Amino acid sequence: MNRRDLLAAGAGLTLTEFSFCLASSLQVSGERHRASGQGTVRHPVFVRSGFTRKLNGADDRAPSPSGMFDTEVVRSSDSEGRLAVFVFPAGDHHPYQGAPLHVHHEQDEWIYVMAGEFVAEVGGERMRLKPGDSLLMPMKVPHRWSVAQDSHCGAIHLYTPAGLMETQWASVAQSEDPKNQEARKAEFERHGLTLLGGALSKEEIDRTL
After folding, report:
1. Each residue of 148-203: pLDDT tens digit?
2. Which of 48, 137, 153, 180 is the most exposed place for a label (fewest CB within 10 A)?
3. 125-129, strands of its sheet edge to edge
């Protein structure tokens, strides 16, 4: 008995009835797939080195590196909301600085190290990332990451789906002043994250092999 005969028998159908149901299902699936793409014209997105994507879909020269999200190469609008990609340009950055402990409710976060070293903590497990290493930080799992000891570093950072990571963040999001913590937490929530704690300390980074 071949696979189609076996499936037909399991469904309590004759082979003719099963073949008709299978053909009908494939036809409906194909029509749904074609309908989902109607009116949508997709284009390649090419961003030259040193440039960043703007909200209006144009490219502009990126600012001098000063933070994680200075250079965006794929916007939510480029990928129908499925993806946002940022480049942390290889260059001199502040050592021992990075993201505080937080959790994404609807996004996976992924990092690929191009230069230097980073230290990340995911679900309480700490690890050192070196050039060529990558790390997936799943949604709903608390995590944080920081530049390690060397100021020269660079990475690619990806979020899927894009969510609101690319929207403008208020400066209070980077404040560590205790009197600003409620406003800081609210800013994280506005972007679909919950702030859970601080960034990795210098001692924690130095101890991570």
Report:
1. 999 999 999 999 998 888 777 777 677 777 788 898 899 899 889 999 999 999 99
2. 48
3. 125-129, 118-122, 143-147, 98-104, 193-195
Strand, coil or helix: 34: helix
Sequence-distant (6+) residues with CB within 8 A of 46 are none
- Of 3-7, 96-100, 139-143, the poorest mean pLDDT is in 3-7
What's the rounded Cα separation, in Å, for the pair 72 and 156? 10
CA 189, CA 198: separation in Å to the nearest integer? 16
Please enumerate in sequence order all residues whose Cβ is within 8 A of that of 101, keeping only pairs 6 or more positions apart, or say none: 121, 142, 143, 144, 195, 196, 197, 198, 199
- Among 87, 116, 101, 131, CA closest to 204: 101
Specify the DSSP element, H or E, that contains 182.
helix 181-190
Return all residues near 102 (Cβ < 8 A) that are at least 6 apart. 142, 143, 144, 188, 193, 194, 195, 196
